[in-house]
């Protein structure tokens, strides 16, 4: 039984969320979102500079609004408060596993915190930037009377263990399956470099 629980936790952390006994597929598109119209995933680009073009991109929901937060920090949000946050210059001074431990420590004392899973694994890049080393924490917390579902992932591309990128996906727990798909697609289709 412990092996089954550990296996499910690793699958959740690596690919998003497992519901109903089957793992999410990175090829599922469009994706239904909690009884709403299907969501179309398209290539979204950011960190764009006139002299070199856009330095990052990933497949994300087409309707999510892009917000530049700071240099190399961007988020994509929808009207429900769901979001995907990218920090593409997180820092290569720590490994993805070390970044995960820092995150766990920083979460101590957060209201209503419940850690669902943590894992470090490798994934295949769909854009030739792998293998990817990924460390992921999936958790829920309370924001007032509302419960938020969050998955934060640290990504090292091209086979490096360094936490070069942070990706956080968040929203309502009822949409965790869809948010898991956003996490999976955001990870496997992520590119860095002029595109």
Whole-number mean pLDDT: 83
CATH third-tier fold name: Protein Transport Mog1p, Chain A
For the largest beta sheet, what order do the strands appear in spatially?
A: 5-6-7-11-10-9-8
User: Which percent range fits the helix content?
Assistant: 10-25%
Largest sheet: 7 strands, antiparallel
CATH homologous superfamily assignment: Mog1/PsbP, alpha/beta/alpha sandwich
Beta-strand content estimate: 35-45%
Rg result: 16 Å
Name given to the CATH architecture = 3-Layer(aba) Sandwich
What is the succession of H and E elements? HEEEEEEEHEEEEHE
Tally of contiguous helical segments: 3
For the terminal residues, how far apart are their CA atoms? 46 Å
CATH class: Alpha Beta
How many domains?
1
Low-pLDDT runs: 1-29
DSSP summary, beta strand count: 12
The assigned structural class equals alpha+beta
Explain what the structure shows.
The strands form three sheets. Strands 5-6-7-11-10-9-8 form a seven-stranded antiparallel sheet, sandwiched between helices. The protein has a three-stranded antiparallel sheet with strand order 3-4-12. A two-stranded antiparallel ribbon has the order 1-2. The protein has one domain: Mog1/PsbP, alpha/beta/alpha sandwich (Protein Transport Mog1p, Chain A, 3-Layer(aba) Sandwich), CATH 3.40.1000.10. The radius of gyration is 16 Å and the shape is globular. The longest helix has 14 residues, at 2-15. The termini are far apart. Mean pLDDT is 83; it is low at 1-29. It is of the alpha+beta class. The chain has helices at 2-15, 96-107, 176-188, and strands at residues 18-19, 22-23, 41-49, 53-61, 65-70, 73-77, 83-87, 114-123, 132-143, 146-156, 165-171, 191-192. It contains three helices and twelve strands, in the order αβββββββαββββαβ. Keywords: Signal. Residues 1-28 form the signal peptide.
């Amino acid at each position: 039984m412990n092996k089954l629980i550990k296996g499910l936790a690793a699958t959740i952390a690596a690919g998003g969320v497992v519901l109903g006994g089957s793992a999410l597929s990175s090829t599922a598109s469009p994706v239904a979102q909690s009884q709403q119209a299907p969501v179309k995933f398209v290539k979204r680009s950011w960190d764009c500079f006139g002299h070199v073009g856009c330095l990052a991109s990933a497949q994300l929901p087409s309707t999510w609004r892009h917000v530049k937060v700071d240099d190399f920090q961007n988020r994509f949000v929808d009207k429900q408060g769901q979001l995907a946050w990218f920090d593409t210059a997180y820092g290569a001074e720590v490994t993805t596993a070390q970044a995960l431990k820092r995150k766990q420590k920083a979460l101590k004392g957060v209201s209503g915190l419940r850690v669902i899973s943590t894992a470090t694994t490798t994934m295949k890049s769909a854009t030739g930037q792998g293998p990817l080393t990924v460390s992921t924490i999936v958790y829920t917390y309370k924001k007032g009377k509302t419960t938020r579902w969050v998955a934060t992932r640290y990504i090292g591309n091209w086979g490096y263990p360094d936490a070069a990128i942070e990706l956080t996906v968040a929203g309502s727990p009822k949409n965790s399956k869809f948010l898991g798909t956003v996490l999976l697609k955001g990870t496997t289709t992520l590119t860095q470099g002029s595109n």
